[in-house]
Structures are given as structure tokens and as C-alpha cells.
Design brief:
elongated; OB fold (Dihydrolipoamide Acetyltransferase, E2P); 314 residues; single chain; mainly beta; 5 helices
Length: 314
């Protein structure tokens, strides 16, 4: 029983696990849907509590020291206590998101900004139960006070086909569709938020796989540059258990002791490379089979980002 005269304390700003988008092959259309540009960076939660400001990754890792200029801008926004959802993005010379520049932020001279697309807490009130339209109304009030590196991610209420064509023409990553009446569901994937990437497709040479028990965890692919085979990606996505077994049966007869890639092993710079230490886990193959992959883009060094296996090619 609640005693009279005792006020329930207002919620404080705190880390909120981001709501996730469902990946789809076709975006929904209609008056109930609005659209955003899919930014290519690090999803982040910005938190302002009194005189302090913090940045957190999707998993709750503290990003504040990695992007102090964004935390400083949030602190100096002076619009009260806030929790904001957005994407930290590095911009290339044409103003487009560049994931590689973001990864190389310690040496890059390109601007790094925070695109905000949602408000989860506003001056003592959690806004998770409000509709997207209502939360964007609050964001519209806030963004009037934004200056770099704070930016609002534009929202489009328009026909989808011309928007997709324009986004493709600009070389951007994709489009996110959101129901205008959707509440915010922390840590959950929902049909109310859907994303579509404009991926590229190409064929690559299969030169090995990373063994895992009686199967493999990823295939190792490359491409010929002249007469030399260069490693470009380890691909783990796109395999069902049945497909993985089928692919393994077709690749096993090509096993060889010789690594076919001229640029392996990799130097141990990021901790994720195919280094000398990881080479014993690899089964090398004669480079006689090709595969079709779907991927988002290439880095400047020719590596693939977000590659997904589609099929082996005879």
C-alpha cells in the first residue's frame, strides 16, 4: 500500500539496451511506415545525467573515452537529463559513412559524428512507451540545439521505391523502416523495425576452411590478382547445418598441405586476423572451387565487409 504524500522517485538516466532491427529482403510500405538511412558505424547509447555524459556500446561497453568529443557535446547540450539512441559514424570526403575510417579513427582525419534517431529518456521521464512519432517529436525539439558532432538522423515519410533508388545512387548502405506507432522495446528484435542493406555479389576462390570439431567454422576465400591468389575474407555467415555438411563433403577432396594465399599469415594488428598462431587450425585447399558471396562493401585493402555465403559454384 502506497502512503499518501510519498512521491514515487523519477527514473534516472541509465544505459538502455538498444532495440534491434529485423533484417529483411523487402521493406514494408504504407502510411504506417517511416524510413531512415541506415548508417554504417557503431550503435551507441548517449546518456546525460546532470553534469556528466557517457557513451555506451550495444552491449554496455563504455565508449566515452573512445569518443570524448561526442560525450563533451552531449554534456554541453544543456537540455536536461537524456538517454539517446544513435550511431557513431565516420564521414568520408563525400560526407558518406565510412566504417573503415571509423575503425582507423586514431589516425584518420575524417570527422566522426553521432547521428541520433531516438529519445529513450527525457528530463525525468522514460519515453519507451511513447510511440515513435511522439519520441521523434521530442527529438525534433532537441535537435534544434544540436551542433557537430551531434546530428539528427533524417526521417522520411515518402514513397519507398524512389527513396531506395536515391539511397543506392548515393552509395549508402541501406534503409531502415519503422512503424510510426511503435514503442521502444529494449534489447528486442521486432517486426516494427526492419532493415535492408544494398549488398553486392561476386564470385571468389575457396582456398581453405577453419576446422571446428568434425566440420568447419568458416571458409577462407580469395581472389586472383594476376597469377597470385590473395586472401580477402573468412566467411562464417550463411550456412545452415545441412548446407555446411554439403559444402564440407565437396571441399574435403581438395585438401592440400600448401597454403594457396600469398598474403597469409596476417600481422597481428587487430587481434582478428588470420595470424601465424591461427594457421594450424586451417585446412588448405587446392584453389579449384569458387563460391558466390553477398557482401556490403570492400575496404581500401580489398577485404570484404559483412560477407554471407550463398553457394558453391561448379
Amino acid at each position: 500500500m502506497v502512503q499518501r504524500g510519498i512521491l514515487k522517485p523519477k527514473p534516472r538516466p541509465r544505459f538502455v539496451e538498444p532495440m534491434e532491427c529485423k533484417r529483411v529482403s523487402k521493406l514494408p510500405e504504407g502510411n504506417d511506415w517511416v524510413y531512415e538511412i541506415k548508417q554504417d558505424g557503431y550503435r551507441a547509447i548517449g546518456l546525460v545525467d546532470g553534469s556528466s555524459a557517457m557513451l555506451y556500446s550495444m552491449s554496455g561497453q563504455n565508449y566515452t573515452s573512445d569518443f570524448p568529443h561526442i560525450a563533451f557535446a552531449l554534456k554541453n547540450l544543456r537540455r536536461g537529463n537524456l538517454v539517446l539512441d544513435g550511431e557513431i559514424v565516420a564521414l568520408d570526403a563525400r560526407g558518406r559513412a565510412s566504417f573503415q575510417e571509423l575503425q582507423n579513427r586514431r589516425t584518420s582525419r575524417q570527422p566522426i559524428v553521432f547521428y541520433v534517431f531516438d529519445v529513450l529518456h527525457f528530463n525525468g521521464r522514460d519515453t519507451l512507451d511513447l510511440t515513435l512519432d511522439e519520441r521523434r517529436g521530442l527529438l525534433d525539439e532537441l535537435c534544434a540545439h544540436f551542433s557537430d558532432p551531434l546530428r539528427v538522423n533524417p526521417l522520411f515519410r515518402t514513397d519507398l521505391p524512389p527513396l531506395i533508388q536515391q539511397v543506392k545512387n548515393l552509395g549508402l548502405e541501406g534503409v531502415v523502416a519503422k512503424r510510426s506507432d511503435s514503442p521502444y522495446l529494449p534489447g528486442r528484435e521486432s517486426d516494427a523495425w526492419q532493415k535492408y542493406r544494398f549488398n553486392r555479389e561476386a564470385e571468389f576462390v575457396v582456398g581453405g576452411y577453419v576446422a571446428s570439431h568434425d566440420t568447419f567454422s568458416s571458409i577462407i576465400v580469395g581472389e586472383y590478382r594476376g597469377d597470385k591468389l590473395y586472401y580477402v575474407k573468412r566467411v562464417a555467415a550463411g550456412f545452415t547445418p545441412y548446407l555446411r555438411q554439403q559444402v564440407l563433403e565437396e571441399l574435403k577432396p581438395l585438401a592440400t598441405r600448401i597454403c594457396p594465399f600469398v598474403n597469409l599469415p596476417e600481422p597481428n594488428r587487430s587481434g582478428h586476423g588470420l595470424t601465424t598462431k591461427k594457421m594450424p587450425d586451417c585446412v588448405w585447399l587446392k584453389p579449384e572451387r569458387r563460391c558466390e558471396l553477398e557482401f556490403v562493401e570492400r575496404t581500401q585493402s580489398g577485404r570484404l565487409r559483412h560477407a554471407v555465403f550463398r553457394r558453391l559454384i561448379s
